[in-house]
Design goal:
18 strands; five-stranded parallel sheet; 21 helices; globular
């Protein structure tokens, strides 16, 4: 049973529709014009409004506009004996569910109402599903019951319904792509493509080709036309990860796409319209980059219409146990096992600072599951840097020489040491070294050039090859 409101200035039409839908077990109220209808809606909401278009003292279009402000989810079916294309277009633009011309067949109207109520039911079920996931502390594989994560869930649900550009910020490993996918999956674009690209993994020329496509003959090797990711994501979502690594020249081109909603493939003379929602992400401080001139201010404001900041794992320790359990179950299922985590192991996990955030925790639990032979993850299966971690010792061991020291030079040398060690550990593989240091490949190369040690990559690869590695 639904709560229906019939709005028509003809008494005979109000009586007919009231009789028809009352017999169908719906609760029916009637109003002679839009103004009277709004009075009734303020007293008691309706699930669906059936309204004539032309009425004295507030017509159907004005009622539709006002009803949407009062009850955003109410279903509305418009009726008129004077149907025009412009009237129908305006009604649908304001959110009318359907439009029928008088005189009409009652059975046809009943079918339209049934479909409108079915759509309304699906919307309510979807909302209830989101709420249930949120209460369980999980939304599209994003896990956490902490207040900070509840705030993230609420923001995801809110922004999913609108087409605005979203900027997701947070340290590496906090789950920025998961949040982007959740926004897409909860949005009206959920049945359309979700396409992700890491902007830091490409040179400027390659990134332009990937995003915008190219035409045959645009450059050497372009033997056929190729669709760009913006075009491939049409009607869906494109996720620009690590947008802070994008060159200034590419920032200019991206800004134009966001402003004009058009792309020009490399080598093409004409532009094409694109309809892709943009979600961007970065682990860098874009506001600082704007101040330094490394990131365009106009692009920053264009992509950060709706900002979402993800908290690091160390700021939501109450979520660590649930996350660890989730990963243990995930990796256990892959080997047809059933494992749990010992209380002592959970204590150690919650004490650790997790500089690599959720990604580091996932890798840690994958290792523990692979090594554990009992039915319970023991502390011995955790890495030593986790089991031996003690914040109090770290603070007490910190000391500043009485005579002071050159902090900039010290940090510079420390940075260089870690770069060399990462290259040594990965046999000169820059992509793997960047992953070890939680950097983009482009940022790694910048640091290697800064310290003048990029040639080490070739030397280490050669050394590894000679030794059989």
């Amino acid at each position: 049973m639904a709560n229906l409101l019939i709005v028509d200035d003809e008494p005979s039409m109000r009586q007919l529709l009231t009789l028809v839908f009352s017999r169908a077990n719906h609760k029916v109220r009637a109003a002679e014009n839009g103004r009277h209808a709004l009075e009734l809606l303020r007293k008691e909401k309706a699930d669906l409004i059936i309204s004539d278009v032309k009425m004295p003292d507030m017509g159907g279009i004005e009622l539709l506009r006002a009803a949407r402000e009062l009850l955003p989810d109410v279903a509305v079916v418009m009726m008129t004996a004077f149907a025009t294309v412009d009237t129908a277009r305006e009604a649908f633009k304001l959110g009318a569910d359907d439009f029928i011309q008088k005189p009409f067949d009652i059975e046809e109207l009943k079918l339209i109402i049934e479909k409108a109520l079915e759509r309304l039911r699906l919307v309510e079920e979807n909302r209830a599903f989101k709420l249930a996931q949120r209460e369980r502390g999980q939304l599209d594989q994003i896990i956490g019951r902490s207040p900070k994560m509840q705030a993230v869930y609420q923001m995801i649900e809110t922004v999913a319904e609108v087409p605005s550009t979203v900027l997701i910020t947070g340290e590496s490993g906090t789950g920025k792509e998961l949040v982007a996918r959740a926004i897409h999956n909860l949005s009206p674009r959920t049945d359309q493509p979700f396409i992700s690209i890491n902007c830091g993994a490409f040179t400027e020329t390659l990134l332009e080709s990937e995003l915008f496509g190219y035409v045959r003959g645009a450059f050497t090797g372009a033997t056929a036309n190729r669709k760009g990711l913006f075009e491939a994501a049409s009607k869906g979502t494109i996720f620009l990860d690590e947008i802070g690594e994008m060159s200034t020249a590419m920032q200019v081109k991206l800004l134009r796409v966001l402003q004009e909603r058009k792309v020009r493939p490399v080598g093409a003379h004409e532009e094409m319209e694109v309809d892709a929602r943009v979600i961007a992400a970065t682990n860098r401080d874009l506001t600082a980059m704007v101040k330094s001139g490394a990131f365009r201010e106009d692009l920053y404001y264009r992509i950060s219409v709706i900002p979402i900041e993800l908290p690091p794992l160390r700021e939501k320790t109450e979520d660590i146990a649930n996350l660890a359990e989730h990963f243990v179950q995930k990796f256990s299922r892959q080997t047809n096992r059933s494992l749990r985590i010992s209380e002592r192991a959970v204590e150690l996990l919650e004490r650790y600072s997790w500089p690599g955030n959720v990604r580091e925790l996932e890798h840690t639990m994958e290792r523990a599951v692979a090594l554990e032979r009992s039915e319970e993850i023991q502390p011995e299966r955790l890495p030593e840097h986790v089991t031996n971690y003690n914040p109090a010792h770290i603070q007490s061991d910190f000391g500043l020489p009485e005579e002071g020291f050159n902090l900039v030079a010290h940090l510079d040398q420390l940075e260089k040491t870690y770069l060399v060690e990462a290259l040594r550990r990965t046999d000169g593989n820059q992509t793997r070294a960047a992953e070890v240091l939680h950097l983009s490949v482009r940022s790694l190369r910048h640091l290697l050039d800064k310290h003048g040690i990029r040639n080490l990559t070739a030397q280490m690869r050669e050394s590894s090859a000679r030794s059989g590695g």
